[in-house]
Amino acid sequence: MDQVKDHATDEAMLERRAAIAALLARRPDDLLVVPGLGSTTYDLASLGDDERNFYLWGAMGGAAMIGLGLALARPDRRVAVITGDGEMLMGIGSLATIALQAPKNLAVIVFDNRHYGETGMQESHTARAVDLPAVARGCGFSCAFDVADARGLSDLAAQLTGFSELFFARVRIAANEPPRVLPLRDGVELKKRFRRAIGAG
Ligand SMILES: Cc1ncc(C[n+]2csc(CCOP(=O)(O)OP(=O)(O)O)c2C)c(N)n1
Ligand SMILES: [Mg+2]
Predict the structure, then answer these.
(1) Is residue 11 part of a domain?
(2) From the alpha carbon of 36, which atom of ligand 1 is closest?
(3) pLDDT exceeding 90 applies to what percent of the chain?
(4) Most buried of the four, 116, 136, 146, 150, by CB within 10 Å?
(5) What is the pLDDT of residue 112?
(6) Which atom of ligand 1 is found nearest the CA of 37?
(7) Residue 4 within a domain
(8) Using the 8-state DSSP alphabet, how is residue 92 labeled?
């Protein structure tokens, strides 16, 4: 688990749509993705729809725990939660439970733009003090990466193609708002097709 190195530099911030595209460019068949509500859902949808995506339109603070449930229920799959800093902060205690359970098939990735982008770009706690990888480590994650540039992103993308240990990653992204790409909004249908996609429906 040492492929992903910290490469924090002062280079320009990563752009979120380029970041999601790079992360999932070689998405393996078994990878289920749970995006947080709002921007990360739009980011994921910008890559094209996929029934292995469980889009969240609400449940703020719940993305990581939904990922934990999936990872525990389906040890034959890998699960990546890709959420925002505000969403992660709302469910920050989930990191403690996830680290204790430590499913080997779960990745928790936070797109940290230091703002609540979806609701008008109010500053979040990560803009001032909260260091998410440090929080994850403090909760017991043995792997918590800090990704700030293209090299780090490419390491993280490689990691996602076949990880075998729980990890956390914060991806530092620019606080911009690309045009929204809205996937299906019917929660019942989203659940049904996701269950079908993983052979549970
Ligand atoms: C319980 C609850 N509180 C507040 C909101 C409003 N809300 C929706 S998205 C969001 C901010 C999300 O910020 P972040 O996760 O950092 O995503 P970003 O858009 O910055 O990528 C907020 C406050 C909500 N949907 N549910
Ligand atoms: Mg944010």
Answers:
(1) no
(2) 15
(3) 94
(4) 136
(5) 98
(6) 9
(7) no
(8) T
Q: Which among 16, 40, 119, 132 is the best mutation to test ligand 1's pocket, defined by most ligand atoms within 8 Å of the CB? A: 119
Q: How many CA atoms, within 13 angstroms, populate the side-chain half-sphere of residue 119?
A: 12
For the chain, the straight-line distance linking the first and the last C-alpha, in angstroms and rounded, comes to 34
Count: domains in the chain: 1
Q: What distance in Å separates the CA atoms of residue 118 and residue 35, rounded to the nearest whole number?
A: 14
How far apart are the C-alpha atoms of 123 and 80, rounded to whole Å?
26
Give pLDDT < 50 ranges for the chain.
2-3, 5-11
Which tens digits make up the pLDDT trace of 16-55? 999 999 999 999 999 999 999 999 999 999 999 999 999 9
Closest-lying ligand to the alpha carbon of 40? 1
Give the domain CATH number at 151. 3.40.50.970
Looking at residue 4, its pLDDT comes to 54
Binding pocket residue ranges, ligand 1, CB within 6 Å:
36-40, 58, 60, 84-87, 111, 113, 115-119, 124
